[in-house]
Design a protein that fits this description.
Chain lengths: 409, 409, 409, 409
């Protein structure tokens, strides 16, 4: 169970870390400050400067071969293991823009994986190539208003067969990335057989984002932020026609595709959140060492040594658990690794939230203001406690796996 | 130690609760949705509709005598005790707009208390009357960039004597309410004798908000929000002239005024945060009862019964502690009550944050979106863990009070 | 809602506190050190010195009228309210022997309450008088091996009618106090109608402890301790005959009696556990102030100020919650007070365990050794988390009471 | 960073696990039940049956070559790495007697390491050989009454030079194993130069346990238990003469020896505590699955799924952290591994205590009684939070290591 950094990935980690720190981080604030400054007043249009920043960085990364690391166990890309990727993802988690710069950001990686693994050749030609090149972006269209997503069998968005087409009607929301004008393709889960067995009711479609009949009702807000121009959009589909050949894998096999997509997606979030926690701990130490009150460095006041020690111990443990889950995926496959993925999916966001919260507290008001990146880290991490399944559901999976040891033997 | 709801306050509580629930809550969302819609594009201008909502509600409250409850132990207002006020403040905490509607909102109550207690008659005539009438608003100008506010002796914003005037220079930030065009008066703490003994260095000034030389550099953001039009402004003072008679209480007595102001201000926040936690618990129960997954009500899944029980037990305990601190203020005075105020200042925000966090989790994505008030509750409460002193400083006060029992005897 | 110390109880509290501190505490260690030194080698016999200590202290307490305080709302005893009793019980919680010295210890108080409230006159004459006088002790015989006591309907210990007698067969365990040679009376719950409705299956009997056919199988150990000579005995009943007139309240009404007994019993444990936590906090402060390491007082190292502040805040809150539950009992009755009793039953032991645990940690090895009373406090408190219902069951009650607000309206 | 179970150790783990489960566990209860049954009445004498059990098991283990695994990185023993040993120690942690059966128990392993690493040849001949053979046992004599052991420079037990001898005077306590009649050798730290620099004041002696002048004052109790016949003895030394050649490594080098001894000792405790937590989780699952209340399996009530999931996640993380610390020792040496050892020294006991506590709670009264091993697990683990340095001191080390990253660069 080698959880260490391999030699080949160590070189990549160093390049990525340097680029994140020296080239991406310095532009991250400017990028965000540009939001809403498009001449049209449309927050969901990138300004020229935003595109310049983003495209400039992406071009550099691609040129250096720092690209598509997430393609693990594949002949495309670097052919890394999931364990190796974890070390890279951690670095990318430290700055908001970084994952996209290396073409390793959600929801694209999951969507590319769906197309790569389950897509027909024409789908690959039409969308996957451009996604792998970073020329377009994508959205994963699953969540519905009024339905607990954790129980996906309840999803009711309708697709009805009509000749050679399927006709889609209903609402979807929290569609991350659907605000981005570069978002060209949707992978969408629809209910095609409401009366069928629980795991055969749904079908996965792939379609152009500009298919007629799709309307953006509003952006969903995350702690008051619209996350423009990325956005988490609330969409309405009215008689949207999609040809039958746009079905991924097969009618009634939506669940299977969704499951295959989720494992890697979940762990990638966790990997990045560990990097984010490292960044927060670094900021906390620096604040403690360089700020004074009552004639002492803040670090020497109160329980701050304990807070720092606890943060270090929890980061270290979460990282190792994440690496073990990755190693399970590499060696036993995603399905067998599920209980470990569920474990890290609960552990990593909770741990990172705690570290960021302590860092905010050490910074006082500054810690929740625009003068540090901590608030954005926090709100992002807080969403991870529901995204891809709420903690409660993952805890249930872990407990079930545990109890099976005694009931199946 | 009667911590119960007195008969006279019970009637007021019922009126306030009804008005909050039936008249204020239904308009709260609309009020916030109006932010940024002023024709000028200036987010720090109220729209006509905002003023209509606010002034309409305030007029009704005033007319009904539901006004200035915070004036405890006073011949003005209702002459309530702090314990009685606690029950009213709790109701006002449940909806964002409510405290202002009843002229009981921060920072005005603290500022009015300063003027009432320490102000010269001319100051009362000029500012206090209008504040008590709800015609103007105010700001408390203390925090400075680069200084740990918890160690107020470090505050360095300069006031220099120049003839009969004082000349103010420096920056102040996190000045809540200074964005509001109705904010007409500042109470400002400046360093007038940097070499003096620690608690004699500072002087409190009262001044018109439009005194020349004051510039708004920017609004400070709270988790990405500018809280417009209220705002937490970053101000720059350049050679701002204030006559000597504008000094409150006396030169070098700024600390004394600040201390007198802080006790009630701190506990009012706590009282409201308890109401807010009650509201969050209510929302959590309703979600649990009315949402289904896996064929069950969500409330019947996982650890939700325990989560609800824990929330109830923690709210109950925090409320009792808050009432005891209030009773100490009523019977022993604010100074003697300090350790209890510090206790509740630590306990109430942490407790409320936890309850709101659990409520968010039960709601899933909806819980952090614009579709529930939970996110705003959370970000507001998070600021309370530094505002008026970070938890660490209050814990230190509590511990010191405890240890004095053994070292002073 | 007056939760304060009334004038009449203040005087009693001072007397009790003084006697606990000056007369009981100094003998507590000696009393425990005598365990097992009876010439017979029987650990469940008091030594002469133990009886001398115990009887001497009891005689003094009785003579001073510091006796039977627990008889709240009664014309016997002091006629205190439950709130008033709480302040006394807190003092008695500080030293292991104290509650018995004042004839206020479990399980006698609960058993006396059963006899007083539900017992026939002959039962009172035969047992209650001597219990009130402190001449005998008693046991409550309910728990059975192999049955989750929290679901009392499962209790299966059999009583069969045979002429005018009932014949008892089965095992009972964790019968606290049944090891004490002074234990003269049992109140016992038996299943008399296994097929009846859930709450009519059981009947409560009162009987002499030396009724033939009762055998002590073994003492149950608590963290390795047999708590001799008090003991928590595992008993076996073989054809034990009890006349029908020994039934309390009526056949099939065992549940009703049990419920009536439990409320006060539960809260008394909580009251004492708060006193115990106060004692532990005192010990912790003294250790911190008087021990040195690395050239500093221990209190000035690490997070100790925070630990002390947290302890103070949690004790204060738990005490207030306990007082509120007591006040509910006084003003609304035990039944209506149930959710509050459940709350404090969860809160008080958890809180006290945490404070004692922190105190042990500050003492290092000494904190778990015979050189401090902390270990005994801890093991005693740990049992409270199941005794009279495990935390999980009480949390469930609290949650249900909460949810009823929304489902019954 | 291979943290997995190597092939060679896998075979050993299977043998050890089988022997622990099938041969040692069934006798563990009987062994403990024999305590105090020696005909002399002396609890610190093994009964014939105890010796039969112990010697029988040891002989089998030795014969099978399941012996002295702890000798890592050595040409004696199995030559295992510390990572490999961790997997074995985990199995040994599951049953109280097991570590001794395989000659891998504290304090012998630490003492053998001292002799092996720093001892003169004659010391090895006289004591080490017999210790390695399991013929005698040993004690480490360091802790003193009245001194915070974490600040070892304070230790004041005196050794004075007198001709060719040193004369020892003073008290030592918490000397684990010194109650055992088989304990034949002491390794003792004495203050030989109170005025010297902090780390040169002390000298380490090795000596026969029966050297004249040593008196056992009493056994220290752990939560009321004397842990006979092992014991944690309080010793008094009166003019005890030890020849100068009995000094280990050199005069004034006691600290160096103590430091070298501590690293492995600390991590071995952690490894075993992880096995113990696994055992407790197993017991918890079995109870939940096989006990019923309210018509359901207990596991299906309340928050039990969450409790089990949390236990699994915390065990998994602690194990990985322990393995990483072991790997650091293997690859970078004990000194460089210190911050990781400190981390796991805080994490493992806290985690295990929590798991055992939850297990006890699920068992109710049974969980703290002699009918399950949980109480003994708990009290043992509780001592680990001070043994070899209290949590607070290890947290401080971890924080310092963290902050050095920013201050030394």
């Amino acid at each position: 169970m080698d959880l260490g950094m391999s030699e080949r990935v160590r070189a990549l980690v160093e390049q990525v870390r340097a680029m994140v720190e020296n080239e991406i981080a310095p532009l991250d604030g400017e990028y965000h400050a540009e939001v809403g400054k498009h001449p049209s007043g449309d927050r969901f249009q990138h300004t020229a400067r935003q595109l310049e920043i983003l495209n400039g960085l992406k071009a550099k990364a691609k040129e250096r071969g720092l690209w598509n690391f997430w393609l693990t166990d594949s002949d495309k890309g670097h052919g890394l293991t999931t364990v190796e990727y974890a070390y890279l993802a951690e670095e990318m988690g430290k700055v908001h823009l970084a994952a996209e710069v290396f073409n390793c950001s959600a929801p694209d990686t999951g969507n590319m994986e769906v197309l790569e693994r389950y897509g027909a050749q024409w789908m690959k030609d039409r969308w996957l190539t451009r996604l792998l090149d970073g020329d377009i972006r994508s959205a994963y269209v699953m969540t519905e208003p009024g339905v607990a997503s954790s129980d996906a069998a309840q999803l009711a968005f309708e697709a009805r067969k009509d000749g050679d087409d399927w006709v889609l009607n209903g609402e979807k929301y929290w569609i991350s990335g659907a605000g981005d004008p570069r978002c060209a393709v949707y992978i969408l889960m629809a209910c095609t057989a409401p009366e069928a067995a629980k795991h055969s009711r749904h079908t996965m479609f792939v379609m152009d984002a500009d298919t007629p009949g799709i309307e953006v009702l509003r952006p969903m807000h995350v702690f008051g932020q619209d996350d423009a121009p990325h956005g988490h959009m609330h969409l309405k589909f009215t008689d949207v026609r999609v040809p039958a050949r746009n079905i991924v894998l097969g009618e009634g096999r939506g669940f299977e595709v969704a499951q295959g997509r989720l494992g890697p997606g979940r762990i990638h979030h966790c990997m990045r959140s560990i990097g984010l926690a490292e960044k927060a701990l670094e900021l906390m130490c620096l604040r403690g060492l360089h700020r004074e009150a009552f004639g002492k460095r803040i670090i020497d006041l109160g329980a701050n040594y304990d807070i720092i020690a606890n943060a270090r111990m929890e980061i270290e443990q979460a990282r190792l658990l994440c690496l073990k889950a990755a190693w399970m995926m590499d060696t036993q496959g995603t399905r067998a690794a599920q209980p470990w993925i569920s474990q890290i999916k609960v552990v990593a966001p909770l741990m990172s939230l705690k570290v960021v919260d302590e860092a905010m507290q050490l910074y006082g008001g500054t810690g929740i203001s625009q003068d540090t990146p901590l608030w954005r880290m926090w709100t992002h991490l807080r969403t991870l406690r529901f995204a891809d399944g709420p903690d409660a559901v993952h805890r249930r999976q872990v407990a079930r796996a545990e109890l099976r040891k005694y009931t199946n033997g």
